[in-house]
Structure formats: structure tokens, C-alpha cells
Records
---
Amino acid sequence: MKIGIIGMGYVGRAVEASWLGSQHSVKFYDPAVAGSVDSIDELINDRPGAIFVCVPTPSSDNGACDTTVIKDTLKSLIGNYSGAIIVKSTVPPDFWLDYKHVHNLYHVPEFLVARQAIYDYLNPEFIFVGGNNDGHDAIRIIRASAVRLTVPIITTDLVTASLVKYFMNSFLATKVTVLNQYHRLCEKLGGDWNKFTEMIEVDDRMGSSHNQVPGPDGQFGYGGACFPKDVRAIINSIQAHNVSAGIIEAVDSANTQFRGTE
């Protein structure tokens, strides 16, 4: 089977790794290198069994998710390609409202740490498949790759798959923010931070992830490729639908202070 990948950032490279060393062949198209999606027909004409969309969705000046590239990509694919279109790019939930009629389109959110993206992609803790049908085609494609599938696989609609991705990132960003605030208090009072984290991790409800202060990058607050971008994008999306984003706005504001970027 031929596999197409559009976008060759760390997510696209992780997807590529899941097909290496197999009988399947991979063909790439990178809009960032090509400068546009105008030549995507070459990939479509190669008739791959599935196309993974891993294009960037950066923050715009107002914090909203810039969906320009993914919109152009899907416009080129939908109606011109009949195989499974599997979107790995992160886009706000309301983005998918315009695609409820597309039955070969799937959103399979990625949950990767950039510095270990390939390992995380090959060894997921769960897989969520959003689509306008039962997700069978997308699951069949993923099963043919080297991704470890002895994990829960849950199918849902496009909007819900996106909501879950944003919830997880904004919730963990909130956890990081609260822990950073407690770290400051702990230092002021002369407490033992290492013992503090050891004790909270005894409680399964707290979990052991994202408890490191300062973070893996040696800085306070949260950084990386996803959390700042996704927190601001979901705030923008929430506000656009007249829902209160108070807690998440406070998290973003606090993180700006922790990172010293005000």
C-alpha cells in the first residue's frame, strides 16, 4: 500500500517512522517547502491508500489558530481523492463544522512531545478517531502501520475528537500553572518541593505527569510547540461562541508572567 503524508514537521516525521521498514511505500508533500498546495495533485495521482495531513496550524496575531494551510490542503483533497484522509493537525473544534458531509475525512489527534515524537507516536496510550462514520477505514490504515495498538481505541465525531485534544492540553497547562504557583509559595515558606511532589503523586487522582518545576526545558511555566498555541486557540474559540473562558484565560496570563514575556 502507498501512503501519502502532507507536511513534514515533527508530526509528519513521526507518521513516516510508523511505515519505515515495511512493505508499504511513503510519498511526501510539504507545503512549507513547496510554498503552496498547488502541486498536491502529484500526490493524489499516485493513488495512495491513505493520506495523512500533518500541516502546521500556528497562532495568528490575536491568538486564534491559523487554519489557512489546512483549509487549502483539504480543499485540494476533498472531492479529488477518495481514500482515507487522516488529519493529525490540531485545529479548533468549530473548524470541523464545515466538514460534516465528508465521509472519508478523519481527525486522529496526536499527543506527542516534540523531543520524543517518534517514540510517542509508535507507543500511544490511547487512540481517538473522529469522523463522520464508524472510523473503520482510519483504524484499518493505522493497524497496517507499526503503531502499537494494544491500547484503547475510541471512535467519535470530528468535533468531539478535537474538543478532547484541546481539553487535555489546556487541563495539563492548568496543572503546570498551579504547580508553578505552589512552587513559589513552597520556596517562600521554606518547604521541601521534592517531598511535596512525592506526596501528591501518591494520590492517583493527581497523576505523576507534568509535575516538574521548573519544566524539562529548565524554565518555569509551560512552553513547547503545543501548550501555548493550543491554550490561546481554544480561548479564542470559546470566546467566539460566547462561552466564558475565565479559568483558561487566567492560566494563559499566569504563564505569560512565569515565562517573563509580558
---
Amino acid sequence: MEITGWISAILIGLVLGLLGRLIIKPGGAIGWVWTIVAGIVGAIVGGWVAGLVGWSGISLFALQVAAAAVVVGLIANATKAR
């Protein structure tokens, strides 16, 4: 990914973290900081995978949302186990 891709992934990740939190667990056990981190990680991973397969536009966004939801779920499950 180019630098503009990283910057947009981070900015979009903020929103995607919130969307992922709503999809996986509304009012979940993880805090807002972890939600934002999960969104950023999901956006970066989703953007990377989409770049590998050549997706763009709505497909890219859908993959980023799905990746953010998975990361939010993983973090929620990891913190629940403690």
C-alpha cells in the first residue's frame, strides 16, 4: 500500500471500528480505544487483502468492515477470557 492508502486506512479504520463493534457486539465489553485500534487494524488488513485480489470500491469497503468486525470479535473474546 502507498502512503495515501495507509492514511486513508487509518482514517476509515476509525469509522470501521465503530461499525465492527455494532456488528459483533453492541455495547460490547471492549472500550472505545480498543474499538478504534480494531478498526484501524481491520482497515489495514482488509485493504491489504483487497489489494492482493484487485478489489476496489464497495468490495474494498465491505472487506474492510468484515475485517474490522473480526478483529473486534477477537479482542472482545480475548478480554472476556480474563
